[in-house]
Amino acid sequence: MTTAQERLAESVRRLIDVTIRTEVDDAAVAAVTEKIDSATAQLSDSLVPGSFGVRTGPDGQSIALGNVVIGLRNPVAPPLTIRHDADGTVHTEFTLGAAYEGPPGHVHGGVCALILDHVLGATAHLPGKPAVTGTLTLRYLRGTPLGRPLRASAHVDRIEGAKTFAVGHIAGPDGVTVTAEGVFIHPKGGQRDG
Amino acid sequence: MTTAQERLAESVRRLIDVTIRTEVDDAAVAAVTEKIDSATAQLSDSLVPGSFGVRTGPDGQSIALGNVVIGLRNPVAPPLTIRHDADGTVHTEFTLGAAYEGPPGHVHGGVCALILDHVLGATAHLPGKPAVTGTLTLRYLRGTPLGRPLRASAHVDRIEGAKTFAVGHIAGPDGVTVTAEGVFIHPKGGQRDG
Q1: Do B36 and A36 touch (CB under 8 A)?
Q2: CB of B40 within 8 A of CB of A8?
Q3: How far is A87 from chain B (nearest CA, A)?
Q4: EC (chains A, B) (predicted)?
């Protein structure tokens, strides 16, 4: 079930897109800005300090609603839905709009890195035992288009003690755009996530 | 001078932050969502198709107002101000909030990658001759804190033909958090930026 807070985040995602692309006149932009400021004031009546963090849901699973990649309450997150396949592969399908632009018409190379860091890292996550990135290496083969269906996937290459070696890539309509390999580590105490 | 469109983006950045952190009740959240939807409709009266792209300013310089890292019109961008020092070093100082969270209280490792991709790439940019990322390798030394002053910097290690080899890092109050090295390429025709 989508919560009121998640619907708000979806609404803000649409606002972000048109904020970049609007061509209405300055007076209309200023009027909208006032409206947004008033919305911000209403939401600020009660705020958690700092950031969202990770909370534990009713089922005891940790939920990262504020996460910049997967967080349903974070308007900056596309948000990606990470799927764990039976064979241990992880994948996600998505389309990115104007908010993620680098080269004209293309996804910023660093956004590809952000997504691959998360997707490769997800192969190393275990319930209650999150992994953090040790190293990540990216190879850019071609531009990644905005507004076209994309797929990121990753799998574990090998595990050595606390280290998981993962590999993966992003592919678009014209094939693989970026490949990645990374080492992810289960820290002692297992605090971090993402 | 800050334009009306840039002020709108600043306003939406504040909205993003409180959208994640608000604890007002569901009815208040729903009322704000309606207000945001109406703002989005107003801005949608006239839109550029697709994404912002890179446009040429009055001074002939290209301006990437929609860029996800530096774009003053993009609410997802922190936005970073990239400074080119006399010795060829590039640096930027910034603080990241709730919107960029990965591990609780920390910047997502992939956001560090996004920033380092851009900052290292900036060492290779020449007027009218942007560079694209070939490869990027990141080493994560410790968590990067949210809400604390951060500094990213990079310099050119060497140039071989069309390839620029750059190195850099992000540092926080407790020292360097992530190091990076990358190879950036000037494509023939020089189309891309970021």
Answers
A1: yes
A2: no
A3: 25
A4: 3.1.2.2
pLDDT tens profile B71-91: 999 999 999 999 999 888 999
Residue B190 has pLDDT above 70, yes or no: no
Residue-level pLDDT at B84: 93
Start-to-end CA distance of chain B, whole Å, equals 24
**Binary contact (B110, A118; C-beta < 8 A):** yes
ipTM of the prediction = 0.94
| The model's pTM | 0.94
Contact list, A54 vs chain B (CB under 8 Å): 104
Question: Nearest-5° angle of CA A34, CA A37, CA A40?
Answer: 155
Per DSSP, the three-state class of A5 is helix
Q: Which of B20, B35, B70 to mutate to test the interface with A (most CBs of A within 10 A)?
A: B20
The SS3 call for residue A180 is strand
Smallest CA–CA distance from B14 into chain A, residue: A40
Q: HSE (CB half, 13 Å, CA atoms) of B9? A: 24
